[in-house]
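Before surveying the methods themselves, let us examine one representative protein, written as a sequence plus integers encoding its fold.
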Amino acid sequence: MALEWMEWTLMGVLLIFPVVWSLSHSLRYYVKIVVYNALVVSLSSIVIPFTAFRPKNVDNIRCIRWLLNNALSIFGISLDVRNIENLKYDHPCVFVCNHQSSLDVITMAQIFPPQTTVLAKKELLYTGPFGISMWLAGVVFVDRGNHTKAHETMQQTARIMHERQLKIWIFPEGTRNFDGHLLPFKKGAFRLAIEAKVPVIPIVISSYQDFLCKRRKIFNSGKVIVSCLPMISTDGLMLDDVGSLTENTYKIMTDVYKAISKEVHEESARNGLSIMIPPAHQ
């Protein structure tokens, strides 16, 4: 009798779930977020045994990138990468990119240049398998709560970039931004570029807000444009120029962000997929 009741309950759930799935954007949001996080943790766990024999080696990122390479398609997200040739620079440099959500991990995986590592907040080191895999991949962790330690880390990074011919990927906003515009840039990435005497290469990812909205609990299929911009030289710049370099880069990236986000929005609106007003007009 109990078994029969369980069978009927299971059958009812299986029949009702597709209806609720189609009607409830909140259910789709939470299911996709859980699946996404489970995917990242699972793939991080898979990577650990294969990279543990060469810890803190940036080549380990290739394993992570290979596993994440097709992850966007699982969530129905298409990627349009533009001017990727601008990332083909064979010397140390600082990549700066806007930061929107944890989804950036799999967006990055599609374009991540070789011999590159990431600057990340120290708290990510303690996020289980994901943090361990980041440490094994040579990610540079910064203690943002300790200015002295953070400054020492950046000085060490400038030296290591030349010793190992490394490039470094930094999110200059310093935190995720869900509001459809770029937050003011912190100066650390640009100070590092000037101190290390390396160029800055901006990378701009269009707004996710046409298909992903944390506040409204919506996670649909969508499109992302990634625009890889020409390098900005730091030749002849001094530490007094950090502010102007930061502001100029912010303006360049903001203009591109608005343009490509508007393009994505208009395409989504034509296809009846957009969930928001144009980001550039907010």
Observations:
- The first strand starts at residue 77 and ends at 82.
